[in-house]
Design goal:
5-stranded parallel β-sheet; alpha/beta; Rossmann fold; globular
Length: about 150
């Protein structure tokens, strides 16, 4: 890695798995004097519209955003407060992998650090992999941290 890592991006879904990437991201941010950015992507609520959910109300994008912003604020206070060179958080709506890549480009990220479960076979085909999509399409280095499941 070169010394042009001024910004480290850590995507989160607020799970224990995504939190597993934070210690390494914090260490790298400290080593390179980089600001830490944390991103949460709200999936489009339209994906639920074709499901038979009876009388269950599907939340709007606005409702999901407000909830996510509140969770992100708490997440930042709990996990990012000790970031050695500061941190920023952001919540966006869209497809997770695409938005991670877009945000990395927007902030000029020098590195993306994200967790992966390491699924393979049918489980991988069924669940997909945001980390894999980011690895394939990112224009900056991506460090994949295998989380213990």
């Amino acid at each position: 890695m070169t010394n042009d890592i001024n910004t480290v991006l850590v995507p989160t879904d607020f799970s224990d798995m995504s939190v597993a990437a934070l210690p390494l991201a914090m260490d790298l941010a400290e080593k390179y004097g980089a600001e830490l950015h944390c991103l949460y992507v709200v999936e489009e609520p339209q994906i639920y519209s074709s499901l038979e959910m009876g009388s269950v109300a599907i939340p709007t994008s606005g409702e999901l955003m407000e909830s996510a912003k509140t969770r992100m604020q708490r997440f930042g206070e709990e996990y990012l407060a000790n970031a050695p060179h500061g941190f920023k958080t952001k919540v966006v709506v869209g497809h997770a992998a695409s938005e991670v890549i877009n945000y990395a480009n927007e902030i000029g990220a020098g590195l993306i650090v994200m967790a992966t479960r390491g699924y393979s076979g049918v489980k991988h085909l069924m669940l997909g992999s945001t980390t894999e999509d980011v690895l394939r399409h990112s224009t900056c280095p991506v460090l994949s941290v295998r989380a213990k499941t």
